[in-house]
Specification:
This protein is an alpha+beta fold. 14% of the residues lie in helices and 33% in strands. It has two domains: 30 residues; 289 residues, Sandwich (Jelly Rolls), CATH 2.60.120.200.
């Protein structure tokens, strides 16, 4: 065999290895824009950060979560390349004068955005921090995308000085559908406790009745992801992704962190309705939400279900968002 034949053979083998490598990458990560069987393509549906497809919460408080913060527009800094959510400890005059009573005014439960069970566990009017939140309500939702993927790249406030911080990336059905929480489902893509710098968790909330979640009746819910590198933490940029597949023959939700799928929930699983010998498929709950469309919320909360601040908590915190992209993975 001459040198030309050797050269051609080497090129063919190299191309084969390259194609094989590319196929494995595409099959591994939905954002690579091609499905594992190569029968579907994935296109960038929206670049939410670049096109400013979000609103900034102002004078807002989540109902019934026990959060000890008030969301203000002034706590969100946006540029063409990033969004920074700030959390700053309130001065005494802000708590007792400027914002006095605002938390109390929003402490009821009405079944709309943030209408959680158990009432407001923070004393009325007590907001220790002012912080930032954005949402895509009114700008973007999953409606019309039966199989898609959304990915957020962000840094989180974690460590000893971030005790009581509660950064979260999550989704709810659009407010306009008037589905009481959690009868249309809630999808938590990532939630972190400030004092656990290497752990993040993903949770589904659901029920056939309003204001009480049956999340504990689903295995691996919440799922907890721990960074394998002991020298790494979530203070550095990481990618948090959710793949949803609401096609009739599928019904799954999968979580991807840093291009790795680590959790899948099968929505064909069932849960028991409280005090009744009756079971309901998760797909029936999340079908309501998918038909309505889920929108994205990213916020930096303090206190609440994820623990309260203490004397070690720094008075200034931030969560920085570098990218929010949506991919459509529907068939050709």
């Amino acid at each position: 065999m001459g040198w030309r034949e050797h050269w051609v053979k080497w090129v063919v083998l190299s191309l084969g290895l390259l194609i094989s490598f590319e196929q494995s990458v595409f099959a591994m990560h939905p954002a690579a824009c091609m499905s594992s069987d190569f029968s579907s393509v994935c296109t960038v549906e929206e670049d939410i950060l670049r096109h400013k497809l979000y609103t900034i919460s102002d004078h807002f408080y989540h109902l019934g979560t026990g959060e000890s913060n008030l969301y203000l527009a002034s706590q969100v800094l946006s540029t063409p390349h990033s969004i920074t959510l700030l959390a700053n400890k309130m001065e005494e005059w802000e708590k007792n004068e400027k914002y006095m009573g605002e938390c109390a005014a929003q402490s009821g439960i009405d079944g709309s955005r943030g209408g959680y069970s158990g009432g407001n566990r923070t004393p009325p009017g007590v907001c220790e921090f002012k912080s930032g939140e954005i949402s895509t309500e009114g700008f973007w939702s999953t409606k019309g995308i039966a199989h898609g993927y959304i990915e957020v790249e962000a840094t989180m406030p974690v460590g000893k000085e971030s005790v009581g911080m509660w950064p979260a990336i999550w989704m709810l059905p659009k407010d306009s559908c008037h589905i009481p929480w959690p009868m249309g489902g809630e999808i938590d893509i990532a939630e972190l406790k400030g004092n656990q710098s290497r752990q993040a968790q993903a949770t589904l909330h659901f029920n056939e009745e309003p204001y009480t979640s049956r999340y504990q009746y689903l295995p691996n819910n919440p799922g907890v992801y721990t960074l394998s590198d002991p020298e790494s933490d979530y203070a550095s940029p990481h990618k948090y992704g959710l793949e949803w597949d609401f096609r009739p023959e599928h019904h799954t939700l999968s979580w991807w962190y840093d291009n790795k799928k680590w959790l899948t929930q099968d929505l064909d699983n069932s849960f028991r309705i409280a005090d009744k010998d009756q079971y309901v498929r998760l797909a029936m709950v999340f079908k309501k939400g998918s038909e309505c469309g889920y929108y994205l919320i990213i916020n930096l909360a303090t206190g609440g279900d994820f623990g309260f601040t203490d004397e070690n908590t720094a008075s200034e915190q931030e969560m920085k968002i570098y990218s929010i992209k949506v991919y459509n993975m529907m068939d050709k």
